[in-house]
Design a protein that fits this description.
141 residues, mainly alpha
């Protein structure tokens, strides 16, 4: 298995040596001229550029893979795994607090009211990813 190029080498590798003239020109029009320039973009960034469809992205991925490299795949509009995990923990804490209140309640009616109130404030239908996205939006507001 070959070793990935050193960071200083990336700046000197022109994309014309890695890609067809068409792909190298497409990247050049975006100001991406060297491998170091290319590696500052995520897969999502490039796929949002005009004319960068699935075929172009596959070509870029293959050329990078030959050098032991790959573009970051994170979509900035989606929550990270850490944000999803934090949402799961938050929902767990809400449910544990509800269970504790129910077991401490004096009457069944009071316990049912607690359940209704707590679950009324929680959206129990979305997936964890959807809940994390909502939580992320709420944090930014």
């Amino acid at each position: 298995m070959s070793e990935a190029p050193a960071a200083k080498d990336l700046a000197t590798i022109p994309l014309g040596t890695m890609f067809s003239p068409r792909v190298a020109n497409m990247l050049g029009r975006q100001g991406i001229r060297t491998l170091a320039d290319l590696m500052t973009y995520t897969y999502y960034d490039l796929s949002c550029l005009p004319a960068f469809g699935g075929g172009t992205m596959a070509t870029i991925d293959a050329a990078l893979a030959e050098r032991g490299l790959r573009l970051d795949r994170h979509d900035p509009h989606q929550p990270t795994l850490l944000e999803e995990f934090a949402t799961v923990l938050e929902q767990r804490d809400q449910l544990l607090a509800l269970i504790e209140r129910i077991t401490d309640s004096v009457s069944t009616v009071e316990g049912l009211r607690d359940i209704d109130t707590t679950l009324g404030g929680m959206d129990t239908k979305p997936t964890v990813r959807q809940a994390a996205i909502t939580h992320r939006r709420d944090d930014r507001s």
